[in-house]
Amino acid sequence: MKREKISELTTNRLSVYLRCLNELASAGIKTVSSQELAEQFNLNSAQIRKDLGYFGEFGVRGIGYFVDDLREHLTKILGLDRPHRVGIVGAGRLGTALANYHGFSKSTFTVVALFDNDKEKIGGHIGPSRIPILDVKKIEKVVRDQTIDVAVIAVPARAAQRVLNQIMAAGVKAVLNFAPALLKARLGVKVKTVDLTTSLESLSYFLARPQETQVVSARRSGSARKRVETRTSRQL
Amino acid sequence: MKREKISELTTNRLSVYLRCLNELASAGIKTVSSQELAEQFNLNSAQIRKDLGYFGEFGVRGIGYFVDDLREHLTKILGLDRPHRVGIVGAGRLGTALANYHGFSKSTFTVVALFDNDKEKIGGHIGPSRIPILDVKKIEKVVRDQTIDVAVIAVPARAAQRVLNQIMAAGVKAVLNFAPALLKARLGVKVKTVDLTTSLESLSYFLARPQETQVVSARRSGSARKRVETRTSRQL
DNA sequence: CTCTGTGAAGTCATTCACAGCG
DNA sequence: CGCTGTGAATGACTTCACAGAG
To answer: Are residues A116 and A122 in contact, defined by beta-carbon separation less than 8 angstroms?
Structure first.
């Protein structure tokens, strides 16, 4: 077990592996090899072994990985063995949709409050679990009282940095940002931005290309043998 | 002007640059240097020049870039000078939220239809522009009639691959996927997956670490001079 | 003199390839 | 044997550093 800095690409993949393992487990499958896993998401098997190798030696040579065992390890590594309490700032369409989104409220993540500055909305409740909409001014107090450790920013771009500053002041260390804005966070605070506009515009670029003649490129003629693990598109 | 394969990281950044240029333009600013742009999003200025350099020589030495000029170029490069028509599959919470989301419906992207398989929902309309909810079975016909060129998948994971297949059969080449699933697309079809679960779990990993002592590492003592362009977190 | 455009160098990520365990 | 774990090789992306245009 090393102690290197783990890239976010790796942690993203760990999350995906875990999801797959959960499916395997409920299908009653007991063991899985890195090769089998790799085929699920078109990925190289060495990638998976490397990713896991950062955290320990979980496999058995000649066999592969025990599904339940690896599942537990990944759950622990990702910190999903402890519950997380989520606050969503912005009770607009996106914020309220996210509050209800299963997979967001799922399992270890519980949305405990929404915040807004609109007097009309404050005092209201969202969804079947009646998540309260609170005044964004009270965010610092609520974060502490409710032990919120993850914040979601779902406000317009121009308000995003201000909101982030409030969130950071309240001591939250992990933020998922949906505002199309470049936020400056201080060291020790992790901001992940999901920028829908950029995603769409990037797709638009792809559409604008003259079909980008897919370069199948035979490479150095001799060794093009095992070009089987086709990776059409790197989704991970 | 070269003709290399452009990485998605580059196209994502181009989108961000464009957004920034639009802001600069409406602030009445006429020219901007790569250095100034780089400071906005903590990024290296050479990165910006490289990104732009793939597509032409847009700058003026000693000056920088003319905002309006560069804006037009990027708009064209990203294919945002032509309108895109978007179909959203899945009229659940997320799908309907996205249909209303400004920035999604904004400017060149118009959501023209939602699709669902729920008889209760089919025939209904969403939002002020009354976007119709149609039977997902009719997707192929509607895509052609309405010339939809971008699809959004907002259905549960287990249905996602099936929906993607239908979408591809209808001839759509660009897909934004919100289902937490590894989709297999055929060559020539671009799928971008936004996986909220993975984003959250990745944040959870970060929280689980013992504060990951931020390695400020003085590096090879001598040449640590210009370590000013702090890149706390690579958000792009 | 300033700022672009770009090879060269550097850093980070993925894939290969194989020793060695079970 | 089959499959893991991992150095070494390759490839991708970023940053440096500087020639040269304005």
So the answer is: yes
The whole-number pLDDT of residue A219 equals 36
Mean pLDDT to the nearest integer, A82-96: 95
CA distances from A81 to A63, B159, B201 (A): 27, 28, 11
**DSSP readout, B75-114?**
HHHTTTTS-EEEEEE--SHHHHHHHH-TTTSSTTEEEEEE
Residues A28 and A119 in one domain: no
Per-residue pLDDT of B11-38, as tens digits, reads 999 999 999 999 999 999 999 999 999 9
pTM for this predicted structure: 0.90
Tell me the CATH number at B66: 1.10.10.10
For an interface test with A, give the residue of B51, B98, B203 to mutate (most A CBs within 10 A). Answer: B203
User: Which CATH number covers residue A130?
Assistant: 3.40.50.720
Q: Is A183 within the bounds of a domain?
A: yes
Those nucleotides of strand D lying less than 7 Å from any protein Cβ are: 1-7, 11-17, 20-22
Is B49's CB less than 7 Å from nucleic acid strand C? yes
Name the residue facing A232 among B96, B150, B187 (closest C-beta). B187
My answer on whether A109 and A186 are in the same domain is yes
Whether B207 and A80 lie within 8 Å, measured CB to CB: no
Whether the CB of A223 is less than 7 Å away from nucleic strand C comes out as yes
Question: At B116, is the secondary structure helix, strand, or coil?
Answer: strand
Q: Which domain holds residue A20?
A: 1-81+210-236
Q: Please report whether residue A203 resides in a domain.
A: no
- Per the structure, the count of domains in chain B is 2
